[in-house]
């Protein structure tokens, strides 16, 4: 007996939270037609979809439109939990800003570590180094306008929800340890990809925002199915009624999951939705 037969969550009661990169989208950053059709069937049967990403809201919107969540209904959790949006009404249901006074310290640390630092405002991505390869990857994925801000702090006069530090993964793992030690109790520091270090306000992660919003929507956390592949998906996978790891997920993510589905290049999300429907037949 697999976890879906054991839990027996009705599709109409289910909340399906989907990470984007490495989970919902394939290696080409595309949502396949099979996955799109499966999600459409899930929504038609009464299921609730949440796109749960470390991406800024601007970067998640195109995927939400591909899935027609603006018409069919659904939600966006962006900035790694810093924001929660109702797609149908375009209503922001939750937002937690990053304390602005922390930004000069973060910039100083980025310079000391010799790594890049960036933040966002609408369709713009502000960074110390706009030619750095991992910054370029981030703006390519999300279609941001490049804005050089070095020094960064004087140009950031708008509210911010998340900062992102970027560097080679092996080096960033060492930086992560130092950052967690320094910011304990003040900021949440987690890697979404080996080369992306996410910085949000303390207590903000995918799990905290998801579980809180699921309850506000009148749903049960027991009926929450969370699918992901990266380190920043760990919190929601552990908090879910059913935690799902993609077969391409990081080792720690697979170890924490209740179920391992196919990879993002094998329509792994389709497999999850099929499992939900199976026992109801």
Automatic annotation (TrEMBL):
InterPro entries: Cof, HAD-like_sf, HAD-SF_hydro_IIB, HAD_sf. One of its GO terms (cellular component) is cytosol. SUPFAM superfamilies: HAD-like. NCBIfam families: Cof-subfamily, HAD-SF-IIB. PROSITE patterns: COF_2. CDD domains: HAD_Pase (cd07516). GO terms for molecular function: magnesium ion binding; phosphatase activity. It comes from the Bacteria. It holds the Pfam family Hydrolase_3. This is HAD family phosphatase.
């Amino acid at each position: 007996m697999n976890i879906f037969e054991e839990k027996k969550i009705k599709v109409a009661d289910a909340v399906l939270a989907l990470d984007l990169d490495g989970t919902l989208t394939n290696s080409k950053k595309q949502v396949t037609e099979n996955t799109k059709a499966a999600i459409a069937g899930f929504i038609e049967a009464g299921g609730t979809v949440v796109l749960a990403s470390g991406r800024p809201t601007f970067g998640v919107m195109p995927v939400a439109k591909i899935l027609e969540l603006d018409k069919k209904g659904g939600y966006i959790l962006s900035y790694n939990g810093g924001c929660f949006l109702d797609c149908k009404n375009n209503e922001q249901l939750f937002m937690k800003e990053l304390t602005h006074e922390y930004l000069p310290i973060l910039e100083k640390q980025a310079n000391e570590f010799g790594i890049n630092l960036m933040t966002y405002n609408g369709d713009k991505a502000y960074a110390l180094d706009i030619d750095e390869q991992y910054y370029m990857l981030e703006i390519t994925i999300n279609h941001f306008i490049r804005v050089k801000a070095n020094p960064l702090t004087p140009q950031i006069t708008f509210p911010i929800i998340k900062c992102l530090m970027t560097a080679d993964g092996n080096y960033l793992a060492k930086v992560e340890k130092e950052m967690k030690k320094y910011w304990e109790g003040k900021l949440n520091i987690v890697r979404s990809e080996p080369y992306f270090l996410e910085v949000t306000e303390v207590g903000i992660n995918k799990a905290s925002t998801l579980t809180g919003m699921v309850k506000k929507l009148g749903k049960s956390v027991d009926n929450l199915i969370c699918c992901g592949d990266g380190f920043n998906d760990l919190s929601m996978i552990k908090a879910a009624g059913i935690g799902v790891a993609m077969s391409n997920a990081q080792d720690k993510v697979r170890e924490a999951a209740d179920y391992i589905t196919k990879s993002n290049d094998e329509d792994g999300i389709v497999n999850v939705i099929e499992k939900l429907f199976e026992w109801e037949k």
